[in-house]
Amino acid sequence: MRLEVRDSGPGRPAVQHPDDNACPGRGLQLADELADDFGVDDHVVGKTVRLVFKTAPAPLTTPGSS
Question: What is the pTM of this model?
Answer without folding.
Answer: 0.67
